[in-house]
Fold these 2 entries.
Entry 1:
Amino acid sequence: MSDLQKISLHSNNGMRAEFTNYGARLMSLFVPNLKGELVNVCLGFQEPEAYLSADEKYFGAIVGRYCNRIANASFELEGKTYQLAKNSDNHHLHGGLKAFHTVLWNIELITENAVKFSYYSPDGEEGYPGNVEVSIIYTLTDDELKIDIEAVSDRTTVLNVTAHPYFNLRGEGNGDILSHLLKIHADAYIPVDREVIPTGGINTVENTPFDFRDFHKIGDRIDEDFEQLIRGSGYDHNYVLNIDYPGFYFHAASVIEPVSRLKMDLFTTEPGLQFYSANWLSGADTGYQGKAYEKRSAFCLEPQHFPDSPNNQHFPSTVLHKGEIYRSKTAFKFSTESNV
Ligand code: BGC
């Protein structure tokens, strides 16, 4: 691909972010620590070309049309069955083979702090109905990276788009994230079967290693003999956020890294949050500063609707009606904590 582009945003206090049109990806995110030094907290590569040869882990990508899993790669909508690509055993993962994460998006710099990526996904792409116009606006303020997603379809379809940055608040490539402290405002999570497909149930986090209602180290319970952890090879589950009403802009999670003392707060309008402890990174890729990305050297917190909603009518709907505007808003906010 010869049309790969890279673009940077800067904020007044020195925050810096780099993006590429390949998958509308966030390539790096530099935030100031307690001493004012910039730490790149996002796994990625220095050049867009590197993403083409990397092991596909959705590093920093926009994921769609349907992020996460759809069971048996099929769903029914308005009486019709749609067949999608099977790219995760018998199932569909993260929109398919040539999905939002691997297409070239149009880039438009809106201000020096904001960039808009847009993409036209034709009817039938990866098996989904409807021509879909989708745009992502990334805005860098003095302490936040904001992600605003909008889309519209000319036929009724399903849509569930997320951003897939991997974070390490000690700096990308600087060891594992097991001592990061995590808090998620969720009383429940979605259990999965042996193939990591939602069982259809909703489980309480109470008295389980999934309870992050108060801060816990990610690594404290990750290797416990608990069936859901074994099925996910660690954390790879969708949390049911304690939102007041659908679309409520909610403070969903916080993460603190005790060495850098960086804190990240996540706000979103989505009802679910996939917490993935990067169990499938293998050291195959060396990243931005040349260090290998090992298993659990990052965490992902992906705001989204629940996995496999098209096959679970009791989950919040992911149906996007013809002409209706899809809107999703997320912010990752950074600060420093002197007392950890
Ligand atoms: C999923 C994981 C998957 C990973 C791919 C995450 O969003 O939850 O199961 O392995 O993406 O890199």
Entry 2:
Amino acid sequence: MSPTDLWLLGHGITASPSPRMQEAALRARGVEGSYRIVDVTPDELGEALRRLRAGEACGANVTIPHKLAVAAACDRLEGDAALTGAVNTVVVEEGRLLGANTDAAGLEGALRGAGLWPAPGTDAVVLGAGGAAAAALLALSRVPAGRIWIAARRPEAARQLAERLAPVLDATPAAWDAAALEPLLAGAGTVVNATPSGLAGLPLRLDGLPAGCTVVDLRYRPRPVDLVAAAGAAGLRACDGLEMLLHQGMLSFRRWTGLEPPWDEARAALHAAVGG
Ligand code: NAP
């Protein structure tokens, strides 16, 4: 069998813990191969995709800022990638690029594993309107959640995301403003921070959340994630994005190798890579 060489296509991502996680998974399953960062600018992306089609690697993860551009370049998009127009996983099949997205399923796996999967009908607020917010909204659509609000610092971005996901989800744009969000947060069973901002930059007062509310922050660094620590200290259920990173990565691993992911080994490598 030829080596399973895999890429992480992104830009400015030298500190990603994914190579250590994926290489630990390959090793644990006895698969010869590598997983390495291929850092390219948007101008260099076309050449990188040409090399991928030519068989330099058998698959890739895709991250900031290339998820949309890679989706546009794929020969076929499946499932969530087709819905969101964003790809985080590419499988190379005889010179063709198949685009998938494991982020929403990764978040679902993480929340289910932690016992934090919302009960059907739970109201939810998602902060942010980028790729991670789209994944969170798709996951919520599968609960299915109750009323869902999207708040983003650019209202237009929240409106566009709600429109894009309208075929599978009824989400309402909300103002990026603590006073306006207060009544929505007061009834929320799940709140997701899908921005890179820490607690101080969010229109969120933890003492305004109901007891039993789950706070999910998709960031996983620096650790401990401030919002998660503060929510825990306030007696709320909370989790950061590390288990989501594990799950989305292992779902990609399964796509590339056809093997059951070695969850424990991959999790241990991921924790070692992020330092806790
Ligand atoms: P993205 O596509 O660039 O979207 C980021 C969103 O956050 C946009 O709505 C952006 O608004 C907003 N934003 C950026 N900086 C902000 C700030 N200082 N204050 C308020 N809003 C801000 O990025 P993404 O891929 O969605 O990633 C968002 C976060 O999720 C990152 O921290 C990332 O590390 C994390 N993430 C985690 C996982 C995981 O597996 N755990 C997976 C994906 C992402 P503008 O459009 O106005 O800039």
